[in-house]
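Forwarding these from the shared drive since the link keeps breaking.
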Amino acid sequence: MTAAPSSRLPGDQPAPTRSLARRAGLGLRALVGAALVVAPVAVVASTGDTVAHQHPALAVLLAVSLLAGVLVLVRGVVLARRPARPAGRRVLRAVGAVAGYGALAVLAGVAWWLRPFPATDVALAALAPDDAVDVQETAGWYAFVPQGTEPTTGLVYSPGARVDVRATAAVLRPLAEAGYLVVALKEPLGIALTSPDQSAQAMAAFDGVDRWAVGGHSLGGVAAAQFAAGHDDEVDGLLLHASYPIGDMSGADLLVTSVWAGEDGLTTAADVEASRANLPATTRFVEVPGAVHAFFADYGPQPGDGTPLVPREQAQAEILTADLALLASVAG
């Protein structure tokens, strides 16, 4: 007796296999969609109003992640109600879907990783303007402007990676109280190297200042050093907080001060020592014994940092002394 011919097309899969692959695809969409929604919501929920006071690029990225997540989840619901497609088309679409959803999963991971370290209450209190210092906020920076005088020397400062720009306030405001204009940059996505020439925009906005220093904390200092090395005809000084240049700038015509923390677990003493060869021979190196990486701003402890051996207030007083000495030299 002759067996009945199979109605299944070559390359087609049995129904149970097709069903399993379909469920796996829908599960992948649901997982990626949920991650895209959860990441920005968790960032905002865990940092309060922090995102609203950073560079707008961060809010845009979080909004894109949220919108993408909603669209992925909606599409997953629509596809779940559609009949299965022919095998050939399913294979091609599956390859494209895996690549696309892989990219979206990366977007969700980046959105979460960019979560800022929020400023503490000490830093937020230093943002209040008074008769000595006016505090101005724009889309690109916070400016600490001395009152009752026309500052002729200024500092443009880049915060460390993913650090709330407001966390620098308690460290930078005393410089304005001493008569210097200070601009703390809101870095795109909280990463200074995303806009290495951002300092020039701040300098151009305050054309009454004729002598400038640039500086920064950690990765912000790397960006500041890069800018200073390429603009030493416009910049007179460089202030490094727990930072160092990534290239040779030993021939730059700059006044440089490198302030580092003795118990820093991220920018170590060995890192600072190695940077000497890349900085001008006149660079002044200032150790703050017992301090840690996170003492150069007020955002709480940071993963990977060392254990402090001195109070934050004591360390920041020593940091301030070094900063004032550099700006006095820049002012001439």
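-- next protein --
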Amino acid sequence: MPTRILPAGADPDAVRSLVTLLSQLPDAEPQPPVGDSTQLVDTLAHLAAESVDELPEVVVVHERIGPVPALELIREVALRFPAVGVILVTTDASPGLFAAAMDSGARGLVALPLSYEELASRVQAVAQWSTGVRRHLGHGADVFGGVGGTVVTVSGAKGGTGATLAAIQLALAAQASGRPTALVDLDLQTGDIASYLDIQFRRSVVDLAAITDISPRVLADAVFRHDTGLVLLLAPAEGERGEEVTDRAARQIVSVLRSRYEVVVVDCGAQLGGAGAAVVEMADTALLVTTPDVISVRAAKRTVRMWDRLQIRKAEETTVVVNRHSRHTEIQPALVQRITGTALARTTVPANFKELQSVVDAGRVHELDGRSSVKQALWALAGELGLVKAGEGGHRGGPGRGTVGFRRRKE
């Protein structure tokens, strides 16, 4: 059986040379190369959604891939696709880099300039390892549900649009439907999830930031288990400590969470930092919450354009959610979609703060009455996004407008 090999790199000349050499290997079947980290992860996720057997045995990552650095990308691939063997191609074949690559989950390292014999030997060994892992684990879907959980980020177009409340209710809906769910507060300086749920905590996301290998025990010590069943990873009580959470740390933390939970909801707040940008980039679904007023919609447009300029997220890959919607407002969801150029959630959240005031003031938003129109809308949104098991966990929403939001990988 031929060995399927997926090359990945941003340098066209280097990738062309790599593909040429790979095509000369015996029983090798090079796949069309991918040019960046996002495309690589999306390609693997798409193949895994079809069938685990569709995944390539070997992925060859060139050191100059981006925007996610090569070692961080290898770590994510190893966590999400554990039976895919990754080889790093690099000019630095030092013992230090070799050790770092192995720690990240690579199965081999090949030095540049490429040598046919070295590449052939490494590909063959990694392909045998991958085949052995698949044979040992079997091909059942339950083994490889395996590609990792769904990551949804919730960002505010500006402060006060209701992103945190939306994130909490989406997570509650997923958990209530029977899907193990983690809720992460990545609004590092002004995160309010702990206040909304009236909890006291000692550990936060900062406690994981400096750890290079997050074990299940370390993760369990850092999270807070809420009475609802939600697993919470909270923002630090001291906002200045948020700077300790780098983009690299954020990617690793969310990758570990998605490997252990079916749904990971991340509140990214309204301010863009390196950590939040990294998670929005890697998310399966990125929500941007706005209210139907000129200031918020302009802010949403600015955010979408900034994400696009920074190559974090394309406009069409971002889903806008309209909060505090009313038929009497001049700005309606269809207009928001035209202005921002994004996808638009069919479900809108009604303007009815009176329903929320008592639970917000008490810090008990998880006790919001099931008859609340706001809760029904947000749980319907969870159903629209595929966060709840079919037939459970959500209330049916009314007729919506717009298009279905873009999702980066199939469930």
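The CA atoms of residues 156 and 270 lie 4 Å apart. The two ends are 28 Å apart (CA to CA).

- D.
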